[in-house]
Design a protein that fits this description.
1258 residues; alpha+beta; 12 domains; six-stranded mixed beta sheet; 17 helices; 83 strands; 16% helix; MBG domain-containing protein; MBG_2; transmembrane helix
Length: 1258
């Protein structure tokens, strides 16, 4: 009892604490739950009574949770297990967790399919009990277990504890404790440690999780139900017939050789019967082992499961052919993938059956005979022979299959000699060894070749390839270093024969033929390229054996060594030998004379900007080395000379290697000699110095002589060229005509000279002259100001791109000024006038046609043009106008000109001609003047003729009541051939011929005004109507009006309709129905005294609307001395002012602060008088100032220093309570007090908990 009281007090305390502090209740629940768990862990033993009490609580909670389940909890999805995979670690049983890993939520859905509220919502509705608060702690987990899946499928019904906890929504480290039951009586429970495997039978299970109560107790909470199905893997294989079929209990065919899942402890099936076949069914797997299955009376087979099972269905033919196997001592024979263990086996009639023969290791199948006939279409794979054979149609016939099985042998000869020499080609060596060592007659396979084997030798460091090169210092030797070598030959094998290898020892000896080199005596050849000289010398050389027989060797492989320079030289010829012949060497003396050379010049013509095709100078042979001198005159008349000596070395000139300077180019030698600049006439001097460098090693007099000849030739072509400085290492680039002369400079050749021409034409393709700046108008007009900054002159453009610094461009100007003076010159004229600018080019690298343009300096004039100069129209009552546009001198339309119309042929004497900007309507002749800025006016003519057709007006009949004035506008007038515009004018003339004061009838007529008739050629005919007067109602309507609040009401008026004599209606007045003068809408009623009995009065009310009074408010500036009290804040009312006795309801306040400076004044208009409105929002920015305590504090009044008198009032307003600046702040200001109260209450709660536990332990 005390405990319940204590718990009740604690609940009240908790509620007060939550209400005061706004701390979530879940925070308290978490702390107390943790305390309860710690207390439970400290209690090592619980009595049986306590356990029974706990069970009782569990049952009560279970019953409660079942009710909750029926009410539709647990409807949310469980994403936590969406990607759990079965694995050997956590799930050794192979549970399919990926497919079915969530709870089915059917037991948690409402019957009427209403939207589920969820456990959390249910708990919030039942917060008053400890049990429901405990349920809130598992609401999230229960929601995770809800899913749309119908069941969990587990292999053999097995699952590990860790995987089970994952499916139940637990997370690492799987700390939760769970239990499950089919009947809610017999429970299984997870253990605290380890990862055991649990086995589930097929069925529906209830799942619960262990949780803790507020008081430290333990209870089990439902988290869902789930259908669990245990399944076994079953495989069915069919042999013996491709037509065999297995059907399940629903008579559906099972896929051939398939494995599937069975969700029961038994499986039934039938087997298709095939004519001429017997059926044998066996099963393996499970505790029963291998057993034969027998069908029941219905042909149904049954498999009982306690583990996975494989079923074998064999079709055994009753009509067959007997196959007899011959020699199978060293091979295995398979027929239709079945090993034949006996000599005889059966195959079906009329069937192509498959035979496969697999030899034992070390054996091969060389062939197969069937009934003593060889099989020609054998195929081999991994040494196994396969083929297909037709069984035939004879029942119980016999077919004999005999494979030829042979033992593989690689036979090698012993004590043989292998020819070998240093440097022998390794492939030749392999062939020598293979052909010498392999005994093909005794080898199987006997068609083995060099390509089928790998040959290695024992190097002392294992078996190595024949070309193995051991590292220096390694205990191994290169092949051939010993007199004998141990050889291993490995056969690679193929699809028919397996690999083989064998070893033998061979002797090594050089068995090649002896040779000698023979050179003819007195050989003389002319210097040429190395290849040419070699080919010429080889004609005098042969290779012979020791008997003098010429050997068939390739002479190109002979090595010739000699000093290749003019004079007598010693020639050495070496023959390196080959795998058949030994090497040999011989020497002789030969004579070399100077060779002949030529030099050609690649004459070319290009256009400026292009490059010459290389090479320009070509020596033949190439090593004769040509240098080229180019001279000429550019298109600008300048002389030019260039030479390229960068590719010619001193060695090239000497024809041999010269120490120190030999590899330097002639240009490098020139720099070392101080000849950085050289003229054409100085070239012989340069080469004389090079002769000095070469010395006696070579004579280059012929080269110098050739250069002098070239210079003499060029001097005749371009006089004075000897004094022109040479451009070293360049080619001409400027437009011009050039002579190119080439000279060979190699002293081993007779000097040769070649001359050609190089032309660089001026570029004219895609080259044109362009003005520096274009004038952007059609008339090439510039104002004087524009001309001052305009870029006159021109330039060359190539492919649209400007070329800078182009010589030869000329600009000329000629023209006439505005004063008539003729001028010309090379500078642009910029005063008013008309001028011609001409751009041309003379000489240089470009050829372009001169360009010319005219330009005008001065302002442009606009012109006006009518669309039609004269326009004719016939009067139809509509406007008839003209149109004119203004154009600039480029012909661009600037806009529409303004028009003035003047009727110069009036149809009426009392109408004077006046100008009008509107298009005319009346008949007449009009002078039309078009006007536009900066343009002379233009005149046109508009003629509107009178309408010709006969016009007719027919007046309709009308009926009115007594006393009601006839509304003549309501009388219908029908017209014919009358303009719409004139109908209204005629309508305005309608009138009654009689009086409206008495009942009766009189004529209604119209008069055609002169303003109408003057536009018609013929007189308009009028047909009169009739007006009938009858009694009629009278309507008097009060006029609605408006007034501003505070102003005098306007005079109330009324309107009378339907009467002809207002005097007889009586005394009419309008009065205001309601009292009051504030903003709003009031009814105005019509009252009539002394009413005339001849009328029926309809009195209609109006309204008086009183609008808000508009005022303007200005916030007055204020100032105070720091530390003093704030002066009153005031404002000034302007505009319409206040009504006497009214108050606006405006409140002023300022920004807080007492430091010296400016502060904003704020206006609160939330209580503004409803009869007023502000014309604009006043600004209080920086209107309050705090100053230091100094003399001369400014006046506290408004800017004028006193109240304004121009209909305004000055209103001083103190800061009112309730403004935004005076309101007490809420929110965080109250929290310190609240937290203090919460702490006190929490301490009281803790004391009560401790007291309650102490009492319980007692």
């Amino acid at each position: 009892m005390k405990r319940k009281v204590c718990e009740s007090l604690f609940a009240v305390t908790l509620a007060l604490t939550v209400a005061v502090t706004n701390i979530p209740v879940t925070a308290f629940a978490t702390e107390i739950n943790q305390s309860a768990r710690q207390e439970q862990m400290t209690e090592s033993v619980q009595t049986e009574n306590q356990g029974q009490q706990s069970d009782s609580l569990q049952e009560n909670h279970g019953a409660q949770n079942e009710t909750n389940s029926e009410n539709g909890q647990n409807s949310t999805d469980n994403p936590a297990g969406a990607e759990q995979n079965s694995g050997e670690g956590d799930n050794p049983a192979g549970t399919d967790l990926k497919k079915d890993n969530q709870f089915e939520g059917n037991n948690f859905q409402k019957v009427d399919n209403q939207e589920n509220s969820g456990v959390a919502e249910e708990i919030s509705r039942q917060q008053n009990t400890d049990d429901n608060q405990q349920n809130a702690q598992v609401s999230e987990q229960a929601a995770m277990l809800s899913s749309d899946e119908t069941q969990w499928n587990w292999h053999k019904g097995e699952i590990t504890q860790n995987e089970l906890k994952k499916l139940l929504g637990d997370s690492w480290p799987y700390a939760g404790t769970y239990r499950w039951s089919k009947d809610r009586e017999n429970w299984n429970k997870t253990i605290a440690y380890g990862n055991p495997v649990y086995t589930f039978d097929t069925g529906t299970y209830y799942f619960q999780k262990e949780t803790f109560t507020w008081t430290g107790g333990i209870q089990w909470n439902d988290i869902g139900t789930k259908e669990i199905h245990a399944y076994y893997n079953m495989g069915i294989n069919i042999y013996g017939s491709s037509e065999g079929v297995v059907y399940n209990s629903e008579n559906l065919a099972v896929p051939l050789n398939s494995t599937f899942q069975v969700y029961d402890n038994k499986y039934k099936f039938t087997v298709k019967n095939i004519e001429n076949y017997e059926i044998k069914v066996t099963a393996t797997g499970g505790s029963q082992g291998e057993r034969k299955l027998t069908p029941d009376a219905n042909g149904m087979y049954e498999v009982i499961f306690d583990d996975d099972v494989t079923v074998k269905v064999e079709y055994i033919a009753t009509n067959y052919v007997n196959v007899k196997i011959g020699q199978t001592e060293n091979a295995e024979v398979y027929i239709n993938d079945t090993l034949i263990e006996n000599e005889d086996t059966r195959v079906n009639l009329n069937e192509n059956f498959q035979i496969k023969i697999i030899p034992q290791k070390g054996y091969a199948i060389e062939g197969v005979t069937v009934d003593q006939a060889s099989v020609s279409d054998l195929s081999f794979e991994k040494y196994a022979a396969s083929f297909s054979w037709y069984s035939g149609e004879t029942n119980q016939a016999t077919i004999t299959i005999s494979p030829k099985v042979v033992k593989e042998v690689l036979a090698l000869k012993e004590n043989v000699i292998v020819s070998y020499h240093k440097g022998m080609n390794v492939e030749r060596l392999k062939n020598n060894i293979f052909n010498t060592v392999v005994n093909k007659e005794n080898t199987i396979p006997n068609n083995i070749s060099i390509d089928d084997v790998e040959i290695q030798y024992q190097s002392g460091l294992g078996w190595q390839e024949l070309d193995y090169k051991p590292i220096v210092g390694v205990f191994a030797h290169e092949f051939g270093n010993n007199d004998t070598e141990k050889i291993r030959i490995s056969y690679k094998g193929n699809s028919q024969y397996a690999p083989l290898e064998a070893e033998t020892t061979v002797s090594i000896s050089d068995e090649r033929i002896e040779t000698q080199v023979v050179i003819q005596e007195g050989i003389t050849i002319q210097y040429n390229t190395e290849d040419v000289m070699k080919q010429e010398l080889l004609q005098y050389i042969t290779v012979q054996d020791k008997d003098g027989n010429t050997l068939p060797v390739d002479k190109s492989e002979l090595t010739l060594s000699y000093n290749r320079i003019v004079g007598q030289q010693e020639l050495t010829v070496s023959y390196a030998g080959d795998d058949d012949y030994k090497d040999a060497v011989a020497t002789a003396t030969i004579t070399i004379t100077k060779g002949d050379a030529t030099v050609s010049v690649n004459s070319q013509k290009i256009t400026y900007g292009e490059s010459f095709e290389a090479p320009i100078f070509t020596a033949s042979p190439e090593e004769a080395k040509a240098i080229g001198l180019i001279v000429g005159i550019t298109a600008s008349g300048e002389k030019y000379a260039s030479i390229d000596l960068s590719e010619v070395t001193v060695n090239d000139i000497a024809g041999t290697d010269i120490p120190i300077y030999g590899k330097k180019s002639v240009q490098e030698v020139m720099r070392s000699l101080g000849m950085t600049s050289i003229k054409v006439g100085q070239l012989p001097e340069l080469f004389e110095k090079i002769q000095g460098i070469i010395g006696s090693e070579s004579d280059i007099a012929g080269v110098i002589n050739g250069i002098e000849k070239v210079i003499n030739i060029l001097e005749k072509i371009v006089p004075g060229i000897n004094d022109v400085t040479i451009h070293i290492g360049e080619l001409p680039t400027e437009a011009g005509v050039y002579t190119a002369a080439g000279v060979t400079v190699n002293s081993n050749y007779n000097t040769a000279i070649g001359v050609g021409t190089l032309v660089i034409a001026q570029k004219k393709t895609n080259a044109k002259l362009s003005f520096n700046q274009n004038i952007e108008n059609k008339h090439n007009r510039l104002t004087a100001a524009e001309a001052e900054s305009f870029d006159f002159g021109g330039h060359i453009e190539v492919d649209g791109n400007a070329v800078g610094d182009t010589p030869g461009i000329r600009t000329n100007f000629v023209g006439k000024t505005a004063t008539g003076e003729i001028v010309s010159g090379t500078e642009a004229f910029k005063e008013e006038g008309e001028y011609i600018e001409t751009i041309s080019i003379i000489g240089g690298n470009y050829l372009a046609i001169p360009i010319v343009r005219t330009y005008t300096i001065g302002e442009a004039k606009n012109t006006i043009q009518f669309e039609k100069k004269i326009v004719y129209a016939s009067y139809d009552g509509n406007e008839h106008g003209m149109t004119a546009y203004a154009y600039n001198e480029d012909g661009d339309k600037l806009g529409e000109a303004a028009l003035e119309y003047q009727n110069i042929l009036q149809t009426s004497t009392n109408v004077s001609p006046v100008e009008n900007s509107s298009a005319p309507i009346d008949a007449g002749m009009y002078r039309v003047v078009a006007i536009y800025d900066n343009a002379e006016s233009e005149v046109g003519t508009l003629v509107i003729t009178k309408a010709v057709a006969q016009g007719t007006v027919t007046v309709g009949n009308a009926e009115t009541t007594y006393g009601q004035k006839l509304n003549l506008n309501s009388v219908i007038i029908q017209t014919k051939n009358i303009a719409q515009r004139d109908i209204a004018a005629i309508q305005d003339t309608i009138a009654c011929a009689g009086s409206d004061e008495a009942i009766g009838s009189h004529a209604i007529t119209v008069t055609v005004p002169e303003s109408v008739s003057r536009n018609y050629l013929r007189t308009i005919k009028v047909n009169k109507g009739t007006h009938t007067i009858i009694s009629k109602e009278v309507t008097i309507t009060a006029d609605s009006c408006k007034a501003q609040y505070g102003n005098t009401f306007p005079e109330f008026t009324y309107q009378i309709s339907g009467v002809s004599d207002k005097e007889n209606l009586g005394d009419i007045s309008v009065v205001k129905r309601e009292d009051g003068n504030h903003v709003g809408t009031y009814t105005l009623d019509v009252q009539v005294a002394n009413q005339n009995s001849n009328y029926k009065y309809n009195l209609e009310s109006g309204t008086l609307t009183i609008k808000k009074r508009a005022i303007t408010v200005a916030i007055d500036k204020k100032q105070k001395v720091k530390g003093q009290k704030d002066p009153a804040l005031t404002y000034t009312v302007e505009g319409d002012g206040l009504v006497e006795g009214d108050s606006l309801g405006i409140y002023l306040s300022r920004k807080s602060g007492e430091k010296v400076g400016l502060y904003d004044i704020y206006m609160d208009t939330s209580n503004l008088n409803k009869d007023y409105e502000l014309a604009s929002e006043p600004s209080g920015k920086d209107k309050f100032e705090i100053v230091e305590n100094k003399a001369g504090l400014t006046n506290q009044k408004n800017d004028s220093g006193k109240s304004k008198t121009n209909g305004t009032q000055v209103k001083s307003v103190k800061k009112q309570p309730g403004t935004v600046w005076d309101r007490i702040k809420t929110g965080d200001n109250n929290k310190p007090v609240g937290y203090f109260i919460a702490v006190l209450i929490s301490l009281a709660a803790i004391i009560m908990i401790i007291s309650a536990r102490f009492q319980r332990k007692k």
